[in-house]
Design a protein that fits this description.
By secondary structure, the chain is of the alpha+beta class. It folds into two domains: 55 residues, no CATH class; 130 residues, Fumarylacetoacetase-like, C-terminal domain (Fumarylacetoacetate hydrolase, domain 2, Alpha-Beta Complex), CATH 3.90.850.10. It is built from five helices and eleven strands, in the order E-E-E-H-H-E-H-E-E-E-E-H-H-E-E-E. The strands form two sheets. A nine-stranded mixed β-sheet has the order 3-2-1-10-8-7-11-4-5. The longest helix has 12 residues.
């Protein structure tokens, strides 16, 4: 089961891709794929609901616009220079500690939406990333517990305006948080975990 969202911008509906590839509208389930959904064991609840209701769900046409596969998260935490070769390409040293920065949730967009290049942009760039959707609040957890906090995975296209980021104040957020600079999707592949873990808060991209 894969989760996706479809429809007009900021009015997306939740959908599921069943085994075999059929896409269905699960609006009747009554929940979007947001922090509340994940924090209340939503994936397992949805799976049980689909077992009983899938045949009554409308099909989603392949022409439907795809939105971000999760509803707007509270924060998008990113890790920079996490590939040694990428650091060397930019003339930077491989960091001894992880380089963390945030992308604004308002940068979120659908996977096929048009990119809005900001006024004055000279060096808009992109990188394909793996996004890890964090499913519940985590603080000071043990390494062996960490996978129990993962709700799933999806693609994230990390757009950056390099001159804003590196040449105009050295502020990564300024170069990475423009509107449409965080396309997400097309779907969330949920992480299989044990019954004790139940996901919520939301997303880190690497």
């Amino acid at each position: 089961m894969k989760l996706f969202r479809f429809g007009s911008n900021e009015s997306e509906k939740p959908g599921v891709i069943l085994e075999g590839g059929k896409r269905i509208d699960i609006s009747a389930f009554g929940e979007d794929f947001n922090e509340g959904f994940f924090s209340t064991n939503g994936v397992d609840r949805l799976a049980e609901w689909i077992n009983q209701n899938a045949e009554r769900c409308p099909a989603v046409d392949s022409s439907a616009r795809l939105g971000p596969c999760v509803s707007r998260p509270s924060k998008i935490v990113c890790i920079g220079l996490n590939y040694a070769r990428h650091a060397l390409e930019g003339g930077a040293e491989v960091p001894k500690e992880p380089v963390l920065f945030l992308k604004a949730p308002s940068a979120l967009s659908g996977p096929n939406d048009d990119l809005i290049i900001p006024k004055g942009s000279q060096k808009t760039d992109w990188e394909v990333e793996l996004a890890v959707v964090v499913g519940k609040r985590a603080a000071y957890i043990r390494l062996e517990e960490s996978m129990g906090y993962v709700a799933g995975y999806c693609l994230h296209n990390d757009y950056s305006e390099r001159s804003f980021q590196m040449e105009r104040g050295g502020q990564w957020v300024k170069g990475k948080s423009c509107d449409s600079f965080a396309p997400l999707g097309p779907f969330l592949g949920h992480h299989r975990r044990n019954k004790r873990s139940s996901p919520s808060a939301i997303m880190a991209d690497s």
